[in-house]
Every structure is written in C-alpha cells, then in structure tokens.
Prior knowledge:
alpha/beta; seven-stranded mixed sheet; two-stranded antiparallel sheet
Amino acid sequence: xxxxxxxxxxxxxxxxxxxxxxxxxxxxxxxxxxxxxxxxxxxxxxxxxxxxxxxxxxxxxxxxxxxxxxxxxxxxxxxxxxxxxxxxxxxxxxxxxxxxxxxxxxxxxxxxxxxxxxxxxxxxxxxxxxxxxxxxxxxxxxxxxxxxxxxxxxxxxxxxxxxxxxxxxxxxxxxxxxxxxxxxxxxxxxxxxxxxxxxxxxxxxxxxxxxxxxxxxxxxxxxxxxxxxxxxxxxxxxxxxxxx
Length: 244
C-alpha cells in the first residue's frame, strides 16, 4: 500500500542548483547549492495539505560517465550524507536516479558525456556598446565567429574547435525524470509529487501527470532569464506552480 504521508521530490539537480558554470567548484559550492534547494523544498512541503511527514528526494543528473561515477556524483552524495535525516516533523531521505523507478534492475549508465567542439549558438556582432566599437574587427566577438566556423581566429594557426573546446552533456536525465513522474502519479496518486525544475521540457510530462493525480507540483528556481510560456496550460492541467 502506498504511504499517505509521503511526498516525492524529483529534483533536476543541475537545473535547480545555483552552481557556477565553466569554473572549478569546491565542496562548499555544492553544499551551499544543495542546502538552498532542499531548504526551499522543505518550506514548500510544510505548506502542503495534508502535510507529509516523509520527504523522499530523488536526485537526477549526470552521475555516471562511460568509465566511472562523475565528480558531481561524489560531491553531491557526500553533501547528502551530511544532511540531518529529520527536519522538524519531516524526515528526509535521498536517492540518486541511476535507473528508471519502475525498472531499478536496469541501470542507465553514461549519463554524463563530453563532446568535442562548440555547441550551436548565434553570435551577434558588432555591438554598439562595445569598447572597441571604433575598431570592430578587434572585438573578441569576431574571433568567436571564427571559432564558430571551426578554426582558430589566427590565420596561421592549425588548431580546430574540436581540439580547443569540450562540452558536458547529460543524456537520459530529463527523460528518466519525466518517466518516473508519470509512474509515481499513476501508482501512488494519493502522495504529493514535486518536480524541482523550470525546464520547459518537463511541461508535457507535468500536464500528463496532472491528469493522473491532483497532487502534482512544479517548484521552479527564479534564475531564468526568459519568460515561462506554459503557465496557463500547466494550471489548466491541474499542476500547482511554485516559484522561488
């Protein structure tokens, strides 16, 4: 029988956590980001009715490379082990999503991959506010456009972008979170399900989960620069939206 006093929190960790990009991070960086997410989550859970006394947090991210557990996994798991199991009246437990909820015996590995080269993006140049606007060809944006073409901006240099750049990619993470959300909503509709992410890729899943359970919540960090395009659809689908 499903527990009636439990809330499931499905956390898209790298979307929710305020982690700096492109720099080396310390244990303290992960600890601060983790604590901010869980503290806000506990604040939300304390206001749910009926209020759960058990919060099961499932963390989603690129936890495994093609050869080993990732650095992110080691940092976040170390932080999670330090967390006090009980917070007031709510007991908190953590698990890492490394397989589908419905099929724990089938691990989904290589969720963190590195790909050589630059990702597709648009460079807008020249910029009127640039300090080098009088000599626009000196602006580094023009060098970036050269890199986008695949080569070093220095004409005599033979280095190509795949040698100079590498990017991290998470694979199966969002899809696993969506599958788990739907599975829990179907199997345990009496329990709260909180999806911690502001990724628009979650929207179809949340609407579908809302058709299966009246206790679906989206908890969204407010670092997003652009607008939220689907609030009316989420609300019409019975999803409760909470920004922080």
